Amino acid sequence: MVSALSHIREIERVAMGRPSNRDRPVIQSWLRCLNDYQLNPARPQEAYIVPATQLREHREQSEELIRIGRTGLEGLFRQVADQNYVLLLSDARGVTVEFMGDPTFDNQLRKAGLYLGSEWSEDRAGTCAVGACIVSEKPVIIHQDDHFDACHIGLTCTAAPIFDTFGDLSAVLDISQLRSPTEKASQQLALHLVASTARRIELANLMTRAREDWVLRLARLPDFLDVDPDAAITIDGNGMITGMTHGGFGAVARSMNQNTVPTRDFIGKPVSDIFDIDIDQLPALMRGRPNGERMVRARNGLALFASAIAPVSSFRTPSTIIPARLPAALRHLSFGDPAMEALQARAAKLADRNLPILIRGETGSGKEYLARAIHDSSARSGPFVAVNCAAIPEQLIESELFGYAPGAFTGAMQKGKMGLIEAANGGTLFLDEIGDMPLALQSRLLRVLSENEVQPVGALRPKPVRFRLLSASHRDLAAMAAEGRFREDLLYRLNAATLTIPPLRQRRDFDGLVDHLLRRHGEEEGETITIDLAARRALARHDWPGNLRELDNTLRVAAAMATDAAITAECLPEHFQAEALPGGGQVDNEALRRQLGECGNNVSELARRLGVNRSTIHRRLKRLH
Ligand SMILES: Nc1ncnc2c1ncn2[C@@H]1O[C@H](COP(=O)(O)OP(=O)(O)OP(=O)(O)O)[C@@H](O)[C@H]1O
């Protein structure tokens, strides 16, 4: 790495107009730092973290995008976490509103500004990937001493812009490393990953906002048209353009022989002004026809492969049911179930308090999902750390939770290890299945809660910690306490408030949940998944012992089995077919015979009516005879 002094000298040479080998975007940004923002390279400044109240405002404004983009962000982070990258999502003002990183390096990351709340606008931080991306609105790599400020010359950062459906910059996605031993060119793959994730988030955002409109996806090659199109445009029932992805504006600009990307000008224009189609021709561009046959031609002759998705008008938007006052993270937990709505309202009131909450509910009912939503709705800048006490072997829970000092025991890491309690400092610790925590550790946890200090195994001194505790259990902790298997005093500490999630079979918003989960899968896959009435009926008849997790998995499998993303009863697992027969799994001979007669002995018709596979009917009939 170059010294700070030689770095400053290089910037001074550039300021005097001397030639430089740096990339053009870097030189342009350095000149902006010197001339426009009057930054002094000889006065380095550490990264700036905005105060918690300000961070909360920034996060609230980005909440919707974070929710829509979460799957994409987590997918990207999973791909790069092994190489010690962290992921930052900043808003259009450069404030980091979402962060993913390895908590082991928390202190270093926070100091380097790779953290929630850090501000990376160019006028404050000097040349940096987020700042340069905000100004240029283009993907960019700022590698080591490309940074203007000598404080940041160890970092390597790669960022891509995310635009809203009107073409305005709404966020910047960045992945960064504290140190990179390699050349700048090695970050090209990072650039590709970040840019394609940004494109997918834009598409998911467009699809979410365009529930009443047609979506037209466009690509120069047919191969990725349905999963990763170059461009997407939304069109209302009158054939007017209502929104586009950034690629959409590019495609429209090219088809009008323009170089710059005009944005809002195109909103409200008839699609037929730009392409040789109008609203009536969109159904012919839906999936189910060979890709080669689905093309549109721009008015300048440019041909593009096209795929249209019909409006999903039957979907009930949550905001019509749940008051908009709820923080966005809590708004999408239910879709018209009175018990859940009451729970959401209580959770919203509790979100910002420092009270511990015990979340109760059957397995898979959404306890962790709720805990994360509470964390996301709070002003906490620290991370959300979830620990499943039942999943960690008993002998490891102590060191995982409390961490250990260097050389604490044989086999321990030399440097020691930060525990998960400390990792949650400033944020939320979610202890799932807390009923599985051994009694001895319950006592230690109690001490942490009363003294706000954690003592790693083998450490001489405790460390101060502040976190919000959320916990969950599907067990009856009060009964366990009565039997002496759970500390009563800890139980009092945990449940200043209790939130109980109803099991899925008792919820009255089953259809809304199905739509919501399908929409989520659709956004991940970049398509609209539909489900017919017979399949819905078959699902509604099931008891769902595995609750939302079981429903979510069932829908994922059904979507994978579906042709053209349209789920029918045949796409559901076998046991749903049996349950769908009259009398449940029991063959009610008379009912089956009667219904077959009503269908004119047509097995296909009966199968359709009952929402089961034809083979299921044949099997039952065979037994009957
Ligand atoms: N309100 C919701 N909307 C959409 N998906 C949800 C919701 N609640 C839960 N899920 C999904 O259901 C699955 C199970 O949720 P979660 O892990 O939160 O359940 P849990 O009660 O904590 O489970 P366990 O008892 O096994 O720890 C996850 O895939 C989650 O994404």
Automatic annotation (TrEMBL):
Name of this protein: Transcriptional regulator of acetoin/glycerol metabolism
Any single GO BP term: phosphorelay signal transduction system
Pfam families in UniProt: AAA_lid_14, HTH_8, Sigma54_activat
Record's keyword annotation contains Methyltransferase: no
Organism, scientific name: Aquamicrobium lusatiense
UniProt xrefs under CDD domains: AAA
InterPro entries documented for this protein: AAA+_ATPase, AAA_lid_NorR, GAF-like_dom_sf, Homeodomain-like_sf, HTH_Fis, P-loop_NTPase, Sigma_54_int, Sigma_54_int_dom_ATP-bd_1
Keywords carried by this UniProt record: Activator, ATP-binding, DNA-binding, Nucleotide-binding, Transcription, Transcription regulation, Two-component regulatory system
Domain of life: Bacteria
Domain Sigma-54 factor interaction per the UniProt entry, residue ranges: 333-560
Sample GO molecular function, one term: ATP binding
